[in-house]
Specification:
alpha+beta; 3-stranded mixed β-sheet; 3-stranded antiparallel β-sheet; 14 helices; 9 strands; 17% strand
Length: 275
């Protein structure tokens, strides 16, 4: 059964109203924002109507936005208060501790030392990414400087190196655990995800793929209001076979959004209709 028709302007108003609930001026407020949404972009907004911290930060100064958000990112990630990494569409992303096991459960990892080898043999990791992971596993935590010195030839700009680090983050194989200043700049400190957050790995093992995807989908629809299934699949890079199970487990309803079927949640429909 198709639920009421929605206009794009109603969904846009719902999203604007959600953002107006927050005004961030401290790391603690930023953490509460991540907890409330489940995940968001760490700086600017991005694909999938997912907000960024800049959308709700309590200043109009661009310089101050970057200064505050960068400091909060470092503080919150180092304290394990939230997870920070290039998770969604390779953009810097915050994920709440509550939702992190669901993301990890869908990463393809099982928390074993050879997870990276399975990804490499399946063609999802480059040889450089494999070697970087193994170096971090043996010698970590290691700074970006350490790794660059060992794996980037002199004169190389390091594009493949940074792409490999992004791949490892996106697959939840490594995590940024701190930052270090020096040499007129800064560097991230990396460790394996399993060593950094073993409790998340243990919690993820208790989730089925459908349960994990449903938890993420519900969080996404609460922040987006409504979204077509194709948008969900594109944002999270889920296989088509997972979408129906996720929608059923999440208890979604189908709405008509500008000539397109979209998913929403029953409890959101009255708010969307009134928007």
């Amino acid at each position: 059964m198709v639920e009421p028709r929605l206009r794009p302007v109603q969904v846009a108003r719902y999203r604007s109203a959600l953002r107006r609930r927050f005004r961030l001026r401290s790391a603690a407020a930023c953490a509460r924002f991540v907890d409330a949404l489940g995940f968001c972009y760490a700086f600017t907004a991005g694909p999938g109507a997912v907000p960024g911290v800049f959308d709700v930060i309590g200043t109009r100064s661009v310089d101050r936005m970057w200064s505050w958000a960068w400091r909060w990112k470092d503080e919150l990630a180092t304290r394990r208060r939230v997870f920070y990494g290039r998770v969604l569409r390779r953009k810097p992303t915050f994920v709440s501790r509550a939702l992190l096991p669901a993301f990890y459960a869908l990463s393809g990892n099982v928390g074993e030392g050879d997870d990276h080898l399975a990804a490499y043999e399946a063609g999802r990791l480059s040889r450089l990414a494999r070697d970087l992971y193994e170096e971090i596993a043996r010698q970590g935590p290691l700074t970006t400087w350490d790794l660059r010195h060992r794996f980037v030839p002199r004169g190389d700009r390091g594009h493949s190196f940074h792409r490999a680090l992004a791949d490892l983050q996106e697959r939840f194989l490594i995590a940024k655990v701190a930052e270090v200043a020096g040499r007129g700049a800064y560097a991230f400190i990396w460790d394996t995800f399993t060593r950094w957050m073993p409790d998340v790995v243990a919690a993820a093992a208790r989730l089925t793929d459908a349960e994990a995807a449903a938890a993420i989908l519900r969080a996404y629809l609460r922040l987006a209001g409504a979204a077509p299934p194709a948008e969900v699949a594109d944002l999270f890079r889920w296989p088509p076979s997972l979408l129906p199970a996720a929608a059923a487990a999440a208890g979604t309803v189908t709405v008509r959004l500008d000539r397109t079927d979209a998913w929403s949640l029953p409890e959101l429909i009255p708010r969307l209709v009134r928007a």
